[in-house]
Specification:
Oligomer: homodimer
Strand content of chain A: 15-25%
Mean pLDDT of chain A: 95
CATH class of the largest domain in chain A: Alpha Beta
Radius of gyration of chain A: 19 Å
Shape of chain A: globular
Helix content of chain A: 25-40%
Largest interface: A-B, 49 and 48 residues
Strand order of the largest sheet of chain A: 2-1-3-5-6-4
């Protein structure tokens, strides 16, 4: 048992927190901590299990931790976190949601990088959203972030569907206000070049399909935010579509977070994250 | 790079915190985390660097963390921590200081186990304080905990000296109120069978001796709370005295904390802690 192998943490360790409810399922502690170790950085990503009503006290307490370098915010706290930071990036202000807080000289800046991760993953695999006709199913937290990111990426048409029609219409109006071609639509995927599932439908094996797979164009790209391959992804692949699952979206979020963490000089690129994630059994 | 070697932490990891200022020097994160790993427990001991004025907000925030199983409290927060728990053990109430908080069903119970660790270390090495004449130099936080522990252990005489005479007299009166034979005294070690340095004097190589070493009885036991061998310890050893440094006191605190953490079935005994501490280079 060498010192190298056993010294997991010491008094000088800096902390990247992740706050959520539930928390046991999050992959960030493993992936980030393995990336820190790869770079011989004395940092750990630590889970904090916090219930929604406790969020104000948690944030006030987390602000007292001088060795906290940042905070990842996950479900269900992303919208509420907007209220507990000192500043928002432009995209976090648009999305009205925070999934990452950078801490610098006591100033907490909220950002949202999951939409960025989604688009970054497509582009890394040669799929450029610009000019494409896109259908987005799901106007919740992740869907909202993806909608703004696809709008910014310049899709030719952004059709948004949600079982909650008001929510979908509101999101379309908000994204449209940025100059993007966004509109409310039905869940019919026919005629779209990019089809995105941003609902939780498909997390459980018994879930129905969020859209009718038989209506997906055979040349379409189908991307699901769910980490495991869903029935939708399988059905789309069977039709010959190119498909994406949620892992790449996660892996493309580390690099945009690493800069504000002061780790921009290190390699947090998605290919390295992906390699490390495979090694730790993600 | 095997999964075993790289998986430092995941979403299910439970946290034993340690809060202090400064924090970089604390050994608890390394030692506790190595002990957790030895037992294949998915726990980590994580440092939280918190300034004194921030303690109320820190405690309120820490209470929201459902995966926090306990909190070690170190300098300078031990006396203040008394005010942020729901209950105190008898010894914490006497000492009016908390160095460990056990969390059980949302109830926070403050305890102080450093005096217990001090006496436990002596006893583990065959030195029974009962019936001994003891001189304690230093009536600060650690000195106070040791004074009550020596009183409870049944020393025949507990002479307490501090450069702050009022502080020493107050401590003697408080320990005396428990029925122990405690009194204010000069720092002259002549005639004492147990001599304890509980001051920080000796942490720096250029520090003077806290007492006159030439006056220590050659058969006395000399114990220092400082972790590295001090000039006092070296001088006492040169006189033929049996000596103790602060590491053993620390190692004997893990077992009394492990029970309230719900880890009583595991081996947190001082010999195992000592072996693990040596392996990680303590």
């Amino acid at each position: 048992m060498s010192s190298e192998a056993t010294k997991l943490v010491d008094g000088s360790t800096r902390i990247l927190g992740i706050v959520g409810h539930p928390i046991a399922q999050v992959r960030a502690p493993e992936v980030w901590s393995a990336m820190f170790r790869l770079h011989r950085l004395n940092y750990l990503c630590i889970p904090f299990h916090v219930l929604p009503g406790d969020l104000p006290a948690f944030f006030a307490g987390a602000r007292t931790m001088r060795n906290l370098c940042g905070l990842i915010v996950t479900i269900p706290h992303k919208p509420a976190a907007v209220g507990y930071v000192d500043a928002l990036t432009d995209r976090a202000r648009l999305v009205q949601s925070v999934n990452f807080v950078a801490v610098s000289d006591g100033k907490w800046t909220g950002d949202i990088v999951d939409g960025l991760g989604f688009v970054g993953n497509l582009r890394a695999h040669g799929v450029e959203p610009r000019g494409r006709r896109a259908l987005l199913v799901g106007a919740g937290g992740v869907g909202t972030a993806i909608a703004f990111a696809l709008g910014e990426a310049g899709v030719a048409d952004l059709a948004i569907y949600d079982t909650d029609e008001v929510r979908a219409r509101n999101l379309a109006a908000r994204v449209g206000a940025t100059g993007a071609a966004a509109r409310f639509a039905s869940p019919d995927p026919a005629g779209f070049e990019l089809v995105v599932n941003a609902t939780p439908v498909g997390m459980r094996p018994e879930d129905p399909l969020p859209i009718e797979a038989a209506r997906i164009d055979r040349g379409a790209v189908v991307a699901d935010v769910i980490v495991k391959p869903t029935r939708l992804v399988e059905a789309a692949a069977a039709r010959g579509c190119r498909t994406f699952i949620g892992t790449g979206m996660m892996e493309h979020q580390l690099e945009p977070m690493a800069g504000p963490l002061g780790l921009g000089a290190f390699d947090f690129s998605a290919p390295t994250v992906s390699r490390v994630a495979r090694q730790i059994g993600s």
